[in-house]
Design brief:
Blueprint (H helix, E strand, L loop, with lengths): L9 E6 L3 E7 L5 E8 L2 H9 L6 E5 L5 H9 L3 E5 L15 H13 L5 E2 L4 H33 L17 H4 L6 H29 L4 H7 L6 H11 L8 H7 L4 E6 L2 E7 L5 H11 L7 H13 L4 H22 L3 H10 L1
Parallel strand pairs: 1-4, 4-5
Antiparallel strand pairs: 1-2, 2-3, 5-6, 7-8
Length: 348
């Protein structure tokens, strides 16, 4: 049953792969209608048209949300994306179903208490797809190489070069006389590795083309120790850096700040949260490994290790990565890191 309502509606959507549930309600929380649809842009447009002009719509940042957000935005809706971690409490209700989930999302939005995720624009999504796919292919290639090393270890064959997949080393496994099925497996793995290398090279070319005129990419690229691949990942994962008011918010979003738990007079701070983009943290830590000696980042890492011992190496890397991300914030926002520029002028 649908009530008549002339105001601006709030719509909560519990999105699934094949079917979804929409709950329409008024600005003061009165439920107007519940609809169950089979997922398709046409059906979603038809249902959202019933919510009137420019409704406020919220859906969770779950599997396959791109098409729904784009369809809603094209239909004139104000789209909000709920962060999955912020709505985990739904699982602890006594009654949990799709209609309640959608209604709770709408309630959080209308009360201004929705934990929101960023709706990335098309250009950022495209870049993320390429950088994340490249990262996955590299991990698969690493697994393939590890399997070749494992076969040689099973047969007791010592590896006589530093990289059996390098220029000289790539020919060496082909000269070995291996029994079956190991010979066939090594040949197959080498073919897979070659195909992956070609695909990774194509992706790197496409990524370089997208970032050729990107001002944020050029500014971050100027920072020491950061190669083109980590910079591409960093720029893709951050997207619009102006959505963060300060570097501290960016570091927190990236999961590089410690957990903080406070109750009465007791305060405890633990390990970093590791919430946010795992790929972004990988890129920052990877960049830290290549910072040249004598640079402030390298000195920061070395000072922590000297003070706390070699067992604090990971802590030192994270601290340096957090400092690097702070510089990345200023580089992407202002086009330069003024503190580094001033230090360079003084050194000159």
């Amino acid at each position: 049953m649908t009530e008549a309502y002339d105001g601006r509606e709030v719509v909560g959507i519990d999105l699934h792969r094949r079917r979804s549930v929409l709950v329409r309600m008024t600005g003061d929380g009165r439920k107007l209608e519940t609809a169950r649809i089979t997922n398709s842009p046409a059906e979603l447009r038809r249902q959202i048209a019933r919510a009137g002009k420019s409704p406020r719509v919220v859906l969770e940042a779950t599997y396959g949300w791109y098409w729904a957000a784009d369809t809603l935005a094209a239909a004139g809706a104000e789209v909000h994306l709920a962060h999955p971690l912020g709505v985990k409490g739904f699982a602890y209700r006594r009654v949990k179903n799709d209609e309640r989930d959608a209604a709770d999302l709408a309630d959080l939005l209308r009360m201004g208490r929705l934990p929101e995720a960023w709706v990335a624009p098309h250009q950022v999504r495209e870049l993320r797809e390429l950088t994340r796919y490249r990262h996955k292919l590299v991990r698969i290639r690493t697994s393939v190489k590890d399997q070749v090393h494992a076969i040689l270890a099973k047969l007791g064959i010592p590896v006589t070069c530093t990289d059996i997949f390098g220029v000289w080393g790539s020919a060496w496994p082909g000269e070995l006389v291996l029994p079956q099925p190991y010979a066939g497996k090594v040949a197959s793995l080498r073919k897979v590795c070659a195909v992956l290398a070609d695909e990774i090279a194509l992706l790197e070319t496409a990524i370089a083309g997208l970032l050729e005129d990107h001002p944020g990419y050029q500014a971050v690229r100027a920072l020491p120790g950061i190669g083109p691949v980590p910079v591409a990942v960093i720029v893709a994962e951050i997207g619009d850096v102006t959505r963060f008011p300060r570097p501290a918010e960016l570091c927190s979003w990236a999961g590089l700040t410690p957990r903080h738990r406070e109750s009465d007079v007791k305060v405890s701070r633990g390990h970093i949260t590791k919430q946010g983009s795992r790929v972004l943290r990988w890129a920052l830590i990877e960049a830290i490994q290549h910072v040249p000696a004598g640079h402030p980042l390298r000195e920061r890492k070395d000072d922590i290790i000297a003070r706390r011992g070699v067992q604090a190496r990971n802590i030192a890397k994270v601290a340096a990565a957090r400092q690097l991300l702070t510089w990345v914030f200023y580089a992407m926002r202002d086009g330069q890191v003024r503190s580094l520029a001033a230090a360079a002028r003084q050194a000159a």
